[in-house]
Amino acid sequence: MNKPNARMRREDLGPDESLCEYCTAKCCRYFALSIDTPRTFADFEYLRWYLLHDRASLFVEGVTWYLLVHTTCKHLQDDHRCGIYETRPQICRDYTTDQCEYDDTYTYEQYFETPEQIAEYANARFNRPETFRSPRPRLSVLA
User: Fold this and answer.
1) CB 116 within 8 A of CB 132
2) What is the DSSP string of 83-122?
3) pLDDT in tens, the chain (143 residues)
4) Phi and psi for 69 in degrees, rounded to 5?
5) 29 burial class (0-12, 13-18, 19+ CB within 10 angstroms)?
6) 41-51 vs 115-125: helix axis angle to the nearest 10?
7) Is 0.85 topped by the overall pTM?
8) Burial letters 74-85, b for 16+ CB under 10 A, else e
9) Nearest to 111 by CA among 49, 47, 53, 54
10) Which of 3, 65, 71, 94 has most Cβ atoms within 10 angstroms of its Cβ?
């Protein structure tokens, strides 16, 4: 039974129900790739470059760094279901709802959305005084 407007609790699912029946397909609206752990200031410059692109962010989970790309699968349908379910890739076949983001309770250890954030982090880590913040706006004096 599809109840897209109901907020089902994971623990209240019946034995023949799927959590996907109640979800908006969060797992199909991004992908994350592990990346090399930045070790030098130059490495952080690459990360800053990633964040200059739309719909990209970075996060750290444990000791692993990830590039997160916020983009929707081309085959996600309006009802939040897979349009190629029978021929979906193996990564989708292997995915389970056991630890999915349905409950929306996960927080990242570190999360970077802007190039300025990663630059400030790198500057602090390498004790550099430089900053990439925009200059303060000048206040005009009314005559």
Assistant:
1) yes
2) TTGGG--HHHHH--STT-GGG-----SEEE-SHHHHHHHH
3) 455 555 788 889 888 888 888 999 999 999 999 999 999 999 999 999 999 999 999 999 999 999 999 999 999 999 999 999 999 999 999 999 888 888 877 788 999 999 999 999 999 999 987 655 666 777 776 65
4) -110, 115
5) middle
6) 170
7) no
8) eebeeebebeee
9) 47
10) 65
The full length of the chain comes to 143
For residue 31 the two structure tokens come to 């992908």
Residue with tokens 């070790």: 39
Place of tokens 């430089």: 130
